[in-house]
């Protein structure tokens, strides 16, 4: 019967995060990379936290002392990762911007074609024929060179867009450089740009949060979950009639979701310099971490479970609220 | 200089960190779930040439919910109920062949049995056969039932594990299973792991190398420096090993341990008398493996008659390389010179007469005319002043199962007396059971029997020290507590530089070894060897102190370091292994060369343990799993819906 417990806990703890991962993040290669990066940075932070725990032996069992440092390390690494991310990604056009550029390009092409058409009608018939033939040859050449030497082309085009957008993005580091970019559009390869485009900032930070959250789940809960496969069960020291694995599974689910929300919120806060959002993240992180201490003997696990679930729901709502009001998401007119 | 000082400070800091590193160990999750019982004694599998008996768990153990059977009501509930995965916790009274086989045949799926030892069994019971070692003795067709309480439960093959545990853990297990019965939540379960590698029969498992032959080491010892070929020999001996359903609990208080105490006390007493008057040589012997078809004595007698060393070791003339034998001193004993045997066999529980005399019985091989003279010596002491011991000639027509039989097979003219506490049937109610413990013997008779037998043996040897013989009460009482109560006494500390894991004295012979050159020696045997060495020491270096035996090789070659002194003694081990087994050097495995001899081999195992844990409610787990699957589908649906909704209003990538 204990395999039942194992899979029950596995589903309860990980299903929202796994579903989010497969239905949203796995659809974009860059999001996957970002989530792996997120998990790596979270591991680094927890490595530092565990070193800190190790070098101060008298405080090893005093969790109230360890928790603030662990949170500090995690939030520090979240900020470092934000800096790294904004250094590499903020100046890249997003996919929607690329699409916009592409449409702009097509529109210009159309206008040029129209003008040519008007000119050609004025020219004599034979010349017109020859000229058109030459033009088509040139066009084919152009196309083949573009697709074969893609790397150089790509880099040059990236540089182009970077340079073009840098002037505007320096003023506004956010994603709303759409209007300015269209002015400097000259010639871009739409397919390659689509591949190298960054996802929007919200999804990126959600991917980072999913990466760190899932890593948290596997490191903190996966290691103890394996013991649930044996014939015996551990009961919560706080609620002696409640299965500890079940309590832990629910807590893990909440904390993974909180990781995603916190990541989205914190990145948005840093990006738009709205530091009250960052403060909210820190606060929920502290409160949730200290609430888990209620699972110790002679406390009450209900006192930890209910508020944590409540905080998770609040966080999710607050994230959506912020997200829809934010500038990183583009509204369809 | 400043740099050095800073380095020093840093070093001190680091050292402090390392020194402070003595924090309470954080238990792993599995350590928190499972509590290993420190003293869990498994029933193990033994194989013969025809099959197997004993117990084995499944490879990854058997687990179940504890169910206590301590009354007829609880037994009936079990029989009539429909319970699955039951781990029976049997009160001592409910552990016998009838009840267990009744449960098995009822097709109740039991995962295993835990036998409690916190309460004594209230009725006589022996799991051994009614005539132990019948096939290998002098009377293979005998009709006598020496052990009428025996139901041969030990020789049954079980497909599930059976464990026992010590007093304290038994008490705890009883309470846990009582809580289960009263519907306590969470319920308690246990996990028994004693997977036996060997199966089928001895021949198969020896070939596969999954088992090792039963046996051990016998010990013989004498006061003189050398055994003379010219003098007759009086052999005073006991069987050393006992057995039980759970081998780790084979104290065999009446069966062997009491005899061990008396034999060692006799040796101790006689070591202080004038031995110059003796016209016979006294050899004291403890035979090992006797419960498994007289392995010790038959091997000894066979070696005395037939041993022929073809290749003596170049370094040590007492070591033979082919066939392997580490001590050839036994060759100084001439089998034909063994004229008398006194065997002490089950002497702990004599019958008391109304005037407080204890009755001992003298058994001899028919016709008794051979041993009449010896019996008369024993009986002659019945009239001594103030004696509490009465020797009576047994009315039994046959010799009870005894080690003497191996000698009589080759020389029926040896005078022999087997001293026992029973006339016909065993008086021992718990023969070869773990219930044969210290409460099963009579400690009050110990001073009298030691003194009486010492006097008689001195007289048989030709001495006349009866007036001055006095036993040392400190010696025999300490020895009694060592060998019957707890094997953690002062003598064990003194004579054995190892500490026993299991404080319950057990004299199960265990295995002989994986090869003749890789022998196994139980610490109980080592203890006997060292203490006999100490008693019969004939030369010692009192001036030089020693710490280990290697310190003695210069001052007194061949001596052993005991109590900080180098001592020389004529005490020897002798192999106790079945004559039917041979060792094949090319394949490094034992093989059966003659199946008319006893063949008993013990299976190998990796580990055995008994873990107790809490069980959760299976229905809660199923509900939780359904919740999890529901949660997965809900989250997929929500994500798809949100994606759909948002992608209408926003550009998502």
From TrEMBL, chain A:
Keywords: Membrane, Notch signaling pathway, Transmembrane, Transmembrane helix. It is a multi-pass membrane protein. One of its GO terms (biological process) is protein processing. The keyword Transport does not apply. Residues 117-183 are annotated as: Disordered. The keyword Membrane applies. Residues 144-168 have a biased composition (Low complexity). Residues 117-143 have a biased composition (Basic and acidic residues). It comes from the Eukaryota. InterPro entries: Aph-1 (IPR009294). One of its GO terms (cellular component) is membrane. The chain crosses the membrane at residues 6-25, 32-56, 62-82, 206-226, 246-267, 274-293, 305-324. It is found in: Membrane. Its main location: membrane. Belongs to the APH-1 family. This is Gamma-secretase subunit Aph-1. It comes from Tieghemostelium lacteum.
From TrEMBL, chain B:
Residues 1-20 form the signal peptide. Keywords: Glycoprotein, Membrane, Notch signaling pathway, Signal, Transmembrane, Transmembrane helix. It is found in: Membrane. Residues 42-198 form the Nicastrin small lobe domain. Coiled coil: none annotated. It comes from the Eukaryota. Its main location: membrane. One of its GO terms (cellular component) is plasma membrane. The keyword Signal applies. GO terms for biological process: Notch signaling pathway; protein processing. Belongs to the nicastrin family. This is Nicastrin.
